[in-house]
Write a structure and sequence with these properties.
Elements lengths: L33 H11 L6 E5 L6 H14 L4 E5 H4 L4 H5 L7 E5 L8 H17 L2 E6 L11 H9 L1 E4 L5 H14 L6 H10 L4 H18 L5 H8 L2
Parallel strand pairs: 1-4, 1-5, 2-3, 3-4
Length: 239
C-alpha cells in the first residue's frame, strides 16, 4: 500500500492490496476485544512499543484489523506496508523484505504461513533487526498462540515472543449476526434479525466467509433492486 511520510514506502509489484471496508469504524467490536483494538489503534499511530503481535482463531478478524491499521496509518501520513504472508510465501523472501526497514509500519499477516520455511524465517529475523535499528515498527498477526508457533529459528522465535502480545477473541453466533448487520448497514442494506439468523444457520461460521457472502448479496441486490429477504437470500446463495 502506498503511504506518505518522511520515508516513502516500498513499492511492491506483488498484487498486494487492501480491502476498502477493512477499517476500524467497520469492525464489530465484541465485548472483551476493546483493549486489543485500542492497542492496535495506538500502535498504528506510532505510539507505544516497537513490536506487537496479535493472535486469534481464523475468522476472528485479524486480517480486517491489520488492514484497518494500514488505513489509519495512511490517513495520518505514516508510511506503511501490508504483507499477507499466505499469498507471498512463494516469493523470494529477500526480495519481499528488501527495503522494508525504511517503512514506518510493516504489517505481517499470518506468520504461521512461513513457519518451517528456513529462508523466510531468516529473512524475517533480519527484518526484525533492521526495523529495530531504524526505529520503525512491526505488527504481526498469528492464528496460533505465540508459544505454539512452530518456528525453527530460535532467534526469530525469541524476537516474536519478546514483543507485546494481545489475544483477539472470536465472535459467538449472536455477535456474528450483529457483525453481519453492521456490515450490511455500512453498505446501505437493511438486514433483519431473521435474515441474519437464516444466513448463520446455513452458511460457514467463519466471519471472512460470511462477509464474502454479504458481498454476493450486495451485488445481487444492486443488480435486481431487491431487499434482503429470506426468499432473496435463498435464491442468491442457493440455501
Amino acid at each position: 500500500m502506498d503511504g506518505v511520510g518522511e520515508h516513502a514506502p516500498v513499492q511492491l509489484s506483488l498484487g498486494v492490496s487492501l480491502n476498502d471496508d477493512a477499517t476500524f469504524a467497520n469492525f464489530y467490536l465484541a465485548e472483551g476485544n476493546e483493549l486489543v483494538v485500542y492497542a492496535l489503534r495506538e500502535f498504528s499511530l506510532n505510539r507505544g512499543d516497537q513490536n506487537l503481535l496479535v493472535w486469534g482463531n481464523r475468522g476472528a478478524g485479524l486480517t480486517h484489523l491489520l488492514q484497518a491499521c494500514c488505513h489509519l496509518a495512511y490517513e495520518h501520513k505514516i508510511s506503511v506496508q501490508y504483507l499477507p504472508l499466505r499469498d507471498l510465501v512463494g516469493y523470494a523472501p529477500e526480495d519481499v523484505c528488501e527495503g522494508l526497514d525504511k517503512v514506518s509500519l510493516v504489517c505481517l499477516d499470518g506468520i504461521d504461513e512461513i513457519c518451517g520455511h528456513q529462508a523466510w524465517e531468516r529473512a524475517l529475523f533480519h527484518l526484525f533487526n533492521r526495523l529495530r535499528d531504524a526505529g520503525n515498527r512491526l505488527l504481526i498477526a498469528s492464528h496460533s498462540s505465540p508459544p505454539s508457533l512452530p518456528l525453527t529459528l530460535p532467534d526469530l522465535k525469541s524476537r516474536v515472543l519478546g514483543g507485546v502480545v494481545y489475544h483477539l477473541h472470536g465472535l459467538n453466533d449472536q455477535q456474528k449476526a450483529h457483525a453481519l448487520q453492521l456490515r450490511a448497514k455500512a453498505r446501505g442494506m437493511d438486514m433483519s434479525d431473521e435474515v441474519a439468523k437464516y444466513i448463520l444457520s446455513r452458511a460457514p461460521r467463519d466471519t471472512n466467509e460470511l462477509f464474502n457472502l454479504l458481498n454476493r448479496l450486495d451485488d445481487a441486490s444492486l443488480q435486481q433492486q431487491r431487499k434482503l429477504t429470506i426468499p432473496f437470500v435463498k435464491e442468491v446463495l442457493s440455501y
